[in-house]
Specification:
Order of helices and strands: HEEEEHEEEEEEEEHEHEEH
Distance between the termini: 115 Å
Oligomer: single chain
Shape: elongated
Strand content: 25-35%
Structural class: alpha+beta
Largest sheet: 7 strands, mixed
Length: about 250
């Protein structure tokens, strides 16, 4: 009889301990917050805040990220740089959605399903906010970043990226690119040489800064701005080989 009572008490104690341990683990499980991603822009780590989530049985309410980040300094980035999101491999989400929260009226908000998004051009915007939503089956978590976007200088694609060299954009009549090309030994003196026989396409894309030019014309750039224009190939070659200026 005594043995049975001891066995009963022993079994009860083990069951009670098992239940308490299980409850404790469940409590920790519920209190555990979602994983924190690493957010970078061109290798620079960007601070973020945790937003709404549904994680391990805990659900939080929606929040206003603009208010939540009001006292937070924005991260300085440049237009066309790339924002990237990564999680530890052992807890990588099934999918990631990156979306721009605010923009000027009439401008399109950027949204991408994936781990990276290009930084958009946002003229006259003081701050730009992005939302990152990570999804694991039936669970999800959101994160927010606050950016100060620096616009690129006009005609950035044509500027020289080497302070020791110039860059040239040749705008030539349709179908006559070969006629207005320059020798390879002259090109070697440049950071870049670009040639286009479609002036209207240049203007229609993102080069509104281009004035009305009559082809052929050669636009000479340094690292900051359009430095000079010449209308004939011989003058261009003379400038590039002998340093002549108008």
């Amino acid at each position: 009889m005594m043995k049975r009572k001891l066995l009963f008490y022993g079994t009860s104690t083990i069951l009670l301990l098992t239940v308490l341990i299980a409850m404790d683990r469940y409590k920790l499980y519920k209190e555990e917050k979602p994983p924190v991603p690493i957010v970078t822009v061109n290798g620079q780590e960007i601070p973020q805040i945790l937003g709404q989530y549904d994680w391990h049985g805990t659900k939080t309410e929606k929040m206003d990220p603009l208010k939540a980040m009001a006292g937070m300094n924005p991260s300085k980035v440049k237009e066309r740089e790339t924002l990237e999101v990564s999680f530890p491999p052992e807890i990588e989400p099934d999918s990631i959605l990156i979306s721009q929260i605010n923009t000027l009226p009439g401008m399109e908000k950027k949204i991408v399903k994936g781990t990276s998004i290009p930084i958009p051009k946002n003229p006259y915007m003081e701050r730009t906010y992005f939302k990152i939503k990570a999804i694991w089956r039936k669970e999800f978590s959101t994160y927010y970043v606050k950016l100060d976007i620096e616009e690129l200088p006009p005609l950035y694609d044509f500027l020289s990226k080497d302070p020791e060299k110039l860059a040239v954009l040749a705008i030539v009549p349709r179908g006559e690119s070969e006629k207005f090309d320059i020798p390879e030994e002259v090109k070697e003196k440049l950071d870049s040489f670009q040639i286009s026989d479609n002036m209207e396409e240049l203007k229609k894309t993102h080069y509104q800064e281009l004035r009305i030019y009559t082809a052929p014309i050669y636009l000479i750039f340094n690292t900051e701005f359009l430095q000079q224009t010449v209308e004939d190939k011989e003058s261009l070659i003379r400038i590039l080989t002998h340093g002549d200026r108008q």
